[in-house]
């Protein structure tokens, strides 16, 4: 049985906008078995870290590569004859509160006109289907039959949205996933509180402030080394100077604190200082770049899955990264992109990565 229902409406003079979608589907999916194949650097997605030092590539040792030169593996799903009968429910809800139309009012309505709120929710649930029975409730708690779950919730409250005058955004995000693979069940859960502030002074100086508190949790049924619960705090002030509508220059500083709440209780204190610039020519040419210096104070095993997640591909101690991107429209239907990245650390050589891309539009 496959079905789909969509509903969209507006209320209170278009102040409230709502969209609802509900879908059901039934079928079979293959129990996923996969391996990793090596490809040319930059053409893959994953990298291999030999965490236990045995020289054998094991499935739990592959990570998503944080840099192009490390992306030398792709995941390939293997054919198999094991299929699982499933029933899938998907429900999504979006709510937008827009009080901007009260901007010409007085009193409370005038104050409320500065606010805008966006809320979105999605749940995608797969369960084992036994016989001809269908569970049409996407919020059902049948954990024994659950083989796949993806949940996303996001709420953003804006003040002076789209403006650069004390523009403030507070966001709450919650993501949860669970998948059944041939190597066992793997689940993850992330939630974060984020606040961003932006203000333009004298049409040239743009001040930004970003702060966040995040919790990331991973649970693997058969690989305890991949279990972690990382709590992190971040604050990043940035000062930018706008030379014109096409050119800007920024200086930023970022402080980040991470702590693993289980296992070996790894900790990371990261300080980052950097600068970036952007230039867009009216003749179809643009260039932007960034340079960052990191100082990582890490306590724990660097050669572990938790250490890799916390350091995000960098090394303890001092690190430097830089990038440069050039884009040029050659004709109305042809453009070229030149991308260059580099990084180094106290314990590794400098690595340079570059690529050229020519795109044609038909």
- What is the name of the CATH topology of the largest domain? Porin
Our measurement of the CA-to-CA distance between the termini, rounded to an integer number of angstroms, reads 40 Å
**Count of individual beta strands:** 19
Can you list the strand order of the major beta sheet?
1-2-7-8-9-10-11-12-13-14-15-16-17-18-19
Overall number of domains = 2
Instruction: Summarize model confidence as the mean pLDDT.
Output: 88
Return the structural class. Answer: mainly beta
Rg, Cα atoms, Å: 24 Å
Description:
The relative contact order is 0.09. The chain is 3% helix and 64% strand. The mean pLDDT is 88. Strand 13 and strand 14 (247-260) form a beta hairpin. The protein has 362 residues and is mainly beta. It folds into two domains: 3-27 and 88-360, Porin, CATH 2.40.160; 34-77, no CATH class. The strands form three sheets. A 15-stranded antiparallel sheet has the order 1-2-7-8-9-10-11-12-13-14-15-16-17-18-19, with helices on one face.
């Amino acid at each position: 049985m496959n079905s789909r229902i969509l509903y969209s409406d507006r209320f209170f003079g278009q102040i409230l906008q709502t969209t609802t979608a509900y879908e059901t589907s039934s079928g079979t999916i293959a129990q996923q078995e996969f391996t990793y194949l090596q490809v040319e650097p930059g053409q893959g997605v994953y990298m291999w870290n030999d965490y236990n030092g045995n020289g054998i590539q094991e499935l739990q040792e592959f990570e998503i590569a944080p840099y192009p030169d490390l992306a030398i593996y792709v995941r390939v799903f293997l054919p198999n004859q094991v299929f699982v009968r499933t029933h899938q429910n998907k429900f999504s809800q979006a709510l937008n509160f827009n009080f901007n139309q009260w901007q010409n009012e007085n009193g409370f309505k005038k104050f409320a006109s500065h606010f805008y709120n966006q809320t979105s929710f999605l749940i995608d649930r797969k369960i084992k289907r036994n016989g001809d029975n269908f569970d049409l409730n996407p919020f059902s708690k049948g954990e024994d039959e659950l083989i796949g779950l993806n949940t996303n919730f996001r709420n953003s409250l804006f003040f002076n949205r789209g403006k650069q005058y004390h523009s403030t955004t507070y966001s709450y995000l919650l993501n949860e996933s669970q998948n059944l693979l041939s190597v066992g069940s793997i689940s993850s859960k992330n939630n974060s509180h984020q606040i961003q502030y932006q203000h333009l002074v004298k049409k040239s100086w743009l001040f930004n402030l970003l702060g966040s508190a995040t919790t990331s949790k991973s649970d693997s049924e058969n690989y305890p080394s991949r279990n972690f619960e990382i709590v992190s705090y971040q604050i990043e002030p940035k000062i930018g100077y706008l030379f014109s509508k096409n050119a800007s220059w920024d200086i930023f500083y970022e402080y980040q604190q991470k702590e693993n709440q289980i296992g070996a209780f790894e900790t990371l204190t990261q300080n980052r200082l950097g600068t970036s610039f952007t230039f867009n020519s009216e003749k179809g040419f643009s260039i932007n770049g960034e340079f960052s210096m990191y100082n990582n104070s890490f306590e724990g095993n660097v050669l572990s899955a938790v250490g890799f997640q916390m350091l995000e591909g960098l090394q303890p101690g001092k690190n430097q990264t830089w990038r440069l991107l050039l884009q040029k429209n050659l004709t109305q239907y042809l453009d070229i992109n030149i991308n260059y990245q580099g990084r180094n650390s106290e314990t590794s050589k400098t690595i340079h990565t570059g690529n050229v891309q020519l795109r044609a539009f038909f």
